[in-house]
Amino acid sequence: MKIITWNCQMAFRKKAEYLLAQNPDIVIIPECEHPDKLKFKDGLAIPNDLFWLGANQNKGLGVFSYSNFKFKLLDNHNPELKNIVPLHVTDGSFDFTLFAIWANNPQDKDGV
Fold first, then answer.
1. Taking the mean position of all CA atoms in its chain, how far away is CA 38?
2. What is the pLDDT of residue 109?
3. Does residue 61 carry a pLDDT above 80?
4. How far is CA 93 from CA 1, 33, 60, 69, 89, in A?
5. Is the backbone of residue 109 left (phi > 0), alpha (psi -120 to 50) or beta?
6. Alpha-helical segments (H) within the chain
7. Rounded to an integer, what distance in angstroms lies between the CA atom of residue 63 and that of residue 4?
8. What does each C-alpha distance from 43 to 35, 40, 62, 88, 92 come to in angstroms?
9. Would the pLDDT of 63 be above 90?
10. CA of residue 57 relative to chain centroid, distance
């Protein structure tokens, strides 16, 4: 299993091809635009599942599955810890908890 995290510094849709060349199963993308804004280049893999959290449509925390893994936010998520997102991850045979973290500056008002 390959999990990659990368702060893309916004505009993930324009940079995704470089990350996807590594054939990840799961990617965690801080500073990712809202999924409604994600229009990937033709021929680029589309995620099988995704989770996104953010207050700014241009800059949130995105988690994408490029395998059979599905995501569900855990009930114990504390919204006050907005840069730490606990996800239940499953593919039907292998389950685990993933903590997606965006280690940004707390004064960054544009973040999650």
1. 12
2. 55
3. yes
4. 13, 31, 30, 10, 11
5. alpha
6. 12-20
7. 10
8. 18, 8, 21, 29, 28
9. yes
10. 14
The SS3 call for residue 36 is helix
Q: For the beta carbon of residue 63, count every other beta carbon within 10 angstroms.
A: 24
Confidence of residue 70 (pLDDT cuts 50, 70, 90): very high
Which SS3 state, helix, strand or coil, does residue 35 take? helix
DSSP E strands in 1-112: the ranges are 3-5, 26-32, 49-56, 59-65, 70-73, 84-90, 95-101
Residue 18, both tokens: 């470089």
- Residue ranges in 12-86 assigned as alpha helix (H): 12-20
pLDDT the model gives residue 3: 94
The torsion region of residue 43 among left (phi > 0), alpha (psi -120 to 50) and beta comes to left
